[in-house]
Design goal:
Layout (H helix, E strand, L loop, with lengths): L3 H5 L6 E2 L6 E2 L15 H11 L7
Antiparallel strand pairs: 1-2
Length: 57
């Protein structure tokens, strides 16, 4: 396993926007940046099943 501090000191990906709307440039991200999450849809479904039902208006 590589040293986790090596990645922590690496250069951050480029950003877009300023202030509170600043975010990483999605076109500049890769799998090395942790952008791949194939199980996201399944996790979302499970969380929605566990959430209490919203009250009727």
């Amino acid at each position: 396993m590589s040293d986790p501090l090596d990645k922590a000191t690496s250069k951050a990906p480029p950003t877009l926007g300023e202030g509170c709307v600043r975010r990483y440039d999605p076109d500049a991200l890769s799998e090395d940046d942790g952008t791949e999450f194939a199980e996201a849809a399944e996790l979302w479904r499970q969380l929605q099943e566990q959430a209490p039902p919203e009250p009727e208006p």
